[in-house]
Automatic annotation (TrEMBL):
Enzyme class per UniProt: oxidoreductase
Species: Micromonospora rosaria
Family: Belongs to the dTDP-4-dehydrorhamnose reductase family.
Pathway given in the UniProt record: Carbohydrate biosynthesis; dTDP-L-rhamnose biosynthesis
Keywords: NADP, Oxidoreductase
Descriptive protein name: dTDP-4-dehydrorhamnose reductase
EC number(s) per entry: 1.1.1.133
Lineage: Bacteria, Bacillati, Actinomycetota, Actinomycetes, Micromonosporales
A GO term from the CC aspect: cytosol
Length: 310
């Protein structure tokens, strides 16, 4: 029996992690949401980690713009709390899988960022997550795993895919940024990858270090929105491209954070599939399917002229 602790278990990724672990033979799962465990409380973290073999930290400050106004608070959750978890795991012998972000990179490279690429966050959120990464590497070098992800969407929380489908049911056209690039990643796919990594890590089959947990391929927010509309049976021409300058935000976004996946070759575990395949699979789940159905039903009444799209 492998004993798992999932922090942030009520969040979008956390809920899919708990579901994935519930299907795993020989797994005992403690699902700790914010009410059950304050990850910024070092004593509470030490007590919670005790008795577990694998800890997956899905607790995080995810409000990117809010972090600009409250960087200390964001760092307490994304950095200091991760150090608490790493110390607790070091004391108990547990493996720690820490979820991080593409935002630790500056987004200025034309290629793909490798796992050992030089960080250079351009906003407070990225800086706070980098503090957490460094804590894992410093405090738990033999049993610490950092998995960077990006552009997450899932059924159990606010996200771009849900927002686009909701707007598709209410307005004729949506304006979407065409000059920010990355890898849309489905929480179900990431959860499965994190569970596989945790199992292999517990068995001593994969080296500790940093891995990139994002989909294959790359696109812009505009490209994702058009693909989403097409796969949902909506008219992609309703999506209109605009520059990121059209929607100024408190936090600067890195322009292009496309991550490489070479690290998985050392594990024997497969990288994730293409982002388009993930979108299609996500749209078959009940929550997204209902949103897509509502958008299709509303489309004829939104004064939309349908076009052909490949």
């Amino acid at each position: 029996m492998t004993r798992w602790l999932v922090t942030g278990a009520a969040g979008m990724l956390g809920r899919d992690l708990v579901v994935a672990l519930g299907r795993l033979d020989g797994a005992s799962v403690t699902a700790a949401d914010r009410a059950a465990l304050d990850v910024t409380d070092r004593r509470a973290v030490t007590e919670a980690v005790g008795g577990h073999d694998v800890v997956v930290n899905a607790a995080a400050w995810t409000d990117v713009d809010g972090a600009e106004r409250a960087e200390d608070a964001a760092t307490a959750v994304n950095g200091t709390a991760v150090a608490h978890l790493a110390r607790a795991c070091a004391g108990s012998g547990a493996v720690l899988v820490q979820v991080s972000t593409d935002y630790v990179f500056a987004g200025t490279t034309a290629g793909r960022y490798p796992e050992d690429g030089h960080p250079g966050p351009v906003n407070a959120y990225g800086r706070s997550k980098l503090v957490g990464e460094e804590a894992v590497r410093r405090l738990l070098p033999q049993r610490g795993y950092v998995v960077r992800t990006a552009w997450l969407y899932g059924e159990h929380g606010p996200n771009f895919v849900a927002t686009m489908l909701d707007r598709a049911a209410r307005v004729p056209h949506v304006d979407v940024v065409e000059d920010l690039f990355g890898q849309p990643t489905w929480t179900v796919a990431l959860a499965a990858q994190l569970v596989a990594l945790g199992r292999a890590a517990r068995a001593g089959q994969v080296p500790p270090g940093t891995y990139h947990g994002t989909s294959a391929g790359e696109t812009s927010w505009y490209g994702l929105a058009r693909a989403l509309f097409a796969h949902a049976g909506l008219d992609p021409a309703r999506v209109r491209p605009v520059s990121r300058t059209r929607f100024p935000r408190p936090a600067v976004r890195p322009v292009r954070t496309v991550l490489g996946h070479a690290g998985w070759t050392t594990t024997g575990l497969p990288p994730q599939g293409h982002w388009r395949a993930q979108v299609r699979a996500a749209l078959a789940t009940p929550g997204f399917a209902a949103l897509a159905r509502a958008a299709r039903q509303a489309e004829p009444g939104l004064a939309v002229t349908r076009t052909v799209d490949d």
